[in-house]
Structure formats: structure tokens, C-alpha cells
């Protein structure tokens, strides 16, 4: 990349700044465009500014009026003039798009992808990009409505010298994200462990609750504390686009394995519940607790707060405490006991909720006792296991239309609650981010 210093910033002379191009303008592409433009990246060459955006047919571009951005009709113009090019395209279509525009890539350019699944992206770049361009890929591990500040931003050095990585780091310094360095393969394994399984858990919760044909938090269940997180995140997921989750689950080989394991784990735990095998259930849960968190049977775990308190979480209950300050829908700081089968089967850390449950002996024992001796949530647990198996089979089939139909059927049931959930859920996530708890959506 001639004339571009590795420590380049928006304050460098224009002839030393990279021309930045984005191909694919969905929600994430638009988010990237806005942050880069706001940071002042706008090197001008004859007739057009440097931040060049393809795919103008996306609805999100209708309201995109940012100084320093020119929208091009297709990715060929972007590829030919840009020193740094980022493809922000669904994993399902990345091969088709790169095969079309990749051959036009400028000699010596740095190319990145922003897909949530890297196996198809890697194959597309290796097949369709010229050998004289560099590959330094990316993935922001958060949604388009979440601030990138402090969030993980994965950087993958695949086919590039260190200097190209430095340039990418400096381009995205304005995001104030936390850089995480992985390979393509490690990325997909990590996202399968953290995102794909987490999404499967909350998708399953929604399907199970929809099967009951009632909003459980309006019936005195699933309010306060951990229940508040479960409801808010479930609603935020179903208010999103189905393809965001379908691609990550279906196209990631590691995700298929992990989601199947999750469904099997939920089934096996439920069988122990039905058998009334308290000791067997406790032994299995505590063995997993020690394996994942390194905490012995009788240990409480870290004394450092890793989650918001029950009273704080009560403020974000749908249809409850946000309307009456100080009101706790549970009547006290401790919510009703629940088996938390969804979390026990997952043992992954999304907003720290599984860790919050599992590090506390009192909370974990209460969940185990409820699972075996309290049938209040037993019908919900049954629906959950059925739904978990269904989602696992859906992913195993690799059918995007089946995934879409299954997703939209549940989303339609909850649609009337999305507006309130987005407002309250957004406030809850901001509170969690401000408390320095990691969020992955």
C-alpha cells in the first residue's frame, strides 16, 4: 500500500490516507460507515470521496447522508479505487459477492470481511481475490445497535505482512474496541461456543414460551433477576433479522456440533429431573461448573461482582418496574426459584448470566432443588426440551427456509412486545456495559 504510513490517522495529509471502501450495506455495514466517517476518514481523489459504499439498494441507505461518503452503483468501482476494502455481506452470499467483485481489487489493497462465520469467507477470499492483495479480516462481536466502545473486535491476519495489520488497527482505532487476534478456524470455534449456542438457547426459550400461548412474565413468572435477562434478550433476538442467526448456526461447522450438544444436554438434564435424581443432577451440574469456571463443589467462586444485582435488574422488567420507580415485581430482591434448564444446559457466558448462576452455591442449589422438587416450571421445561431438539434438527438440516419459517412463527407471537422490549432491553444492556460486564449479541 504505497505512501500510506502504518501509523496513519485521519489527521495525516490526504495523500497519505487510505481510500476506504465498504461492500454490503446492511445494518452492520451502515454502522461501520457512520463510525469511520465520523472519525474523519475522507481522503479525496478526483471526482469522489474516499469512503465508497456499494449496494445502494439496501433500505438503510435511504437515510444515509454522511459527509465524505459517496454511494457507488456496484462493488467494482469500490474495489478498483480502494486501498482498504471490507465486505459486510451475509455469510450465505459472501462467495457469490466476492466472486463478482474480488477480481477488480486494487493491487496491494487490504481486504477484510465482516461476516459472522469465517469458513465461507475464507474460501471466498482464497478463491476469488488476486494473489497481489492482502487479507486481514474482521468481526465486531456485537450487534449494530450496540456501541463498539470496549467491545471485542476480532482481527484475523490471514495473508498479509505485519504492516497491513497495523494499518487496519489504526483505521479502526476510532471504534475504541478491544482487539482480539484469532485465526479463521479459532474464530468459528469461539463464535460457536459463545454466540451460536447462546442464540440457540434464547431462540429455544422463545419457541417454548410461544408454544404455551402466553407471555409468562405477564402471568407472574419470569420476572426479576435472571428471569429479566432471559426475557429481554429473547425478545431482542426475535426482534432482529432471522438471517443474522441462521448463517452463524448453519454455515459454521463448529456451531452445528455445539448446538446438537446443547440440545442433548438439555434432554439429559430433563431426564434426571423427571427421575427425581437430585444427587445425579447435582453431581453433573457441579462437575460442569468446576470444568468451566474452575470452582470446586463448595466454593462460591469469584468475590468480584460479575453481574448486576437483582434489584437493578428488576428495573428492566417488561411492563413492570420501569413504570413505577422502586417497584420490584417479585416483591423482594430474590425472584421465584426456577430450574434454569436453559442456562444449565448452556454453561456459556452471555452477559455473564450463566456464570452469575453457577458461581453461587445458593443460587445453583436452589435451581437444582426447583428442577427436581418444584413442578411450577415443569411444563415450560418440557416445551424447552422439545424446542431445543427442534432447533438442533433445523440447523443440522442446513435449510435456511426452514430456519426462517421456524424463527418467524415465534417472532410473530411476540411482535406486539418488541417496541417496549427494545427500549428496556437497550437500557439493560447499557447498564451492563457500564458495569464492565462483556456483552456478545
From TrEMBL:
Residues 18-303 form the Prephenate/arogenate dehydrogenase domain. The keyword Cytoplasm does not apply. Keywords: Oxidoreductase. One of its GO terms (molecular function) is prephenate dehydrogenase (NAD+) activity. InterPro entries: 6-PGluconate_DH-like_C_sf (IPR008927), NAD(P)-bd_dom_sf (IPR036291), Preph/Arog_dehydrog (IPR050812), Prephen_DH (IPR003099). GO terms for biological process: tyrosine biosynthetic process. This is Prephenate/arogenate dehydrogenase domain-containing protein. It comes from Boletus reticuloceps.
Amino acid at each position: 500500500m504505497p505512501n500510506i504510513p502504518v501509523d496513519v490517522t485521519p489527521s495525516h495529509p490526504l495523500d497519505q490516507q487510505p481510500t476506504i471502501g465498504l461492500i454490503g450495506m446492511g445494518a452492520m455495514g451502515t454502522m461501520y460507515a457512520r463510525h469511520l466517517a465520523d472519525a474523519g476518514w475522507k481522503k479525496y481523489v478526483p471526482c469522489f470521496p474516499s469512503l465508497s459504499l456499494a449496494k445502494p439498494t439496501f433500505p438503510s441507505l435511504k437515510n444515509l447522508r454522511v459527509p465524505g461518503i459517496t454511494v457507488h452503483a456496484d462493488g467494482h468501482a469500490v474495489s478498483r479505487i480502494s486501498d482498504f476494502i471490507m465486505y459486510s455481506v451475509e455469510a450465505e452470499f459472501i462467495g457469490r459477492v466476492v466472486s463478482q467483485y474480488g477480481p477488480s481489487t486494487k493491487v496491494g489493497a487490504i481486504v477484510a470481511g465482516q461476516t459472522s462465520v469465517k469458513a465461507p469467507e475464507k474460501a471466498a477470499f482464497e478463491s476469488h481475490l488476486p494473489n497481489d492483495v492482502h487479507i486481514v479480516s474482521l468481526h465486531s462481536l456485537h450487534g449494530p445497535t450496540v456501541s463498539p466502545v470496549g467491545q471485542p473486535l476480532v482481527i484475523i491476519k490471514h495473508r498479509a505482512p505485519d504492516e497491513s495489520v497495523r494499518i487496519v488497527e489504526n483505521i479502526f482505532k476510532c471504534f475504541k474496541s478491544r482487539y482480539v487476534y484469532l485465526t479463521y478456524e479459532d474464530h468459528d470455534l469461539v463464535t460457536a461456543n459463545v454466540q451460536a449456542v447462546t442464540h440457540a438457547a434464547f431462540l429455544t426459550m422463545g419457541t417454548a414460551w410461544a408454544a404455551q400461548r402466553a407471555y409468562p412474565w405477564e402471568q407472574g413468572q419470569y420476572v426479576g433477576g435472571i428471569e429479566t435477562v432471559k426475557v429481554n434478550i429473547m425478545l431482542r433476538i426475535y426482534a432482529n433479522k432471522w438471517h443474522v442467526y441462521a448463517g452463524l448456526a448453519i454455515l459454521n461447522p463448529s456451531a452445528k456440533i455445539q448446538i446438537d450438544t446443547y440440545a442433548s444436554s438439555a434432554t439429559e438434564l430433563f431426564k434426571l429431573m423427571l427421575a427425581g435424581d437430585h444427587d445425579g443432577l447435582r453431581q453433573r451440574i457441579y462437575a460442569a461448573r468446576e470444568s468451566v469456571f474452575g470452582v470446586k463443589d463448595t466454593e462460591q467462586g469469584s468475590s468480584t461482582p460479575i453481574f448486576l444485582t437483582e434489584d437493578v435488574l428488576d428495573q428492566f422488567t417488561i411492563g413492570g418496574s420501569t413504570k413505577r420507580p422502586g417497584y420490584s415485581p417479585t416483591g423482594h430482591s430474590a425472584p421465584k426459584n426456577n430450574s434454569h434448564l436453559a442456562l444449565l444446559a448452556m454453561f456459556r457466558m452471555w452477559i455473564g448470566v450463566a456464570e452469575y448462576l453457577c458461581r453461587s452455591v445458593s443460587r445453583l442449589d436452589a435451581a437444582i432443588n426447583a428442577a427436581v422438587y418444584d413442578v411450577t416450571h415443569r411444563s415450560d421445561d418440557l416445551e424447552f426440551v422439545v424446542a431445543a431438539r427442534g432447533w438442533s434438527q433445523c440447523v443440522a438440516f442446513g435449510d435456511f427456509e426452514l430456519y426462517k419459517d421456524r424463527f418467524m412463527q415465534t417472532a410473530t407471537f411476540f411482535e406486539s412486545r418488541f417496541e417496549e422490549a427494545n427500549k428496556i432491553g437497550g437500557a439493560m444492556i447499557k447498564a451492563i456495559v457500564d458495569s464492565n460486564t462483556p456483552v456478545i449479541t
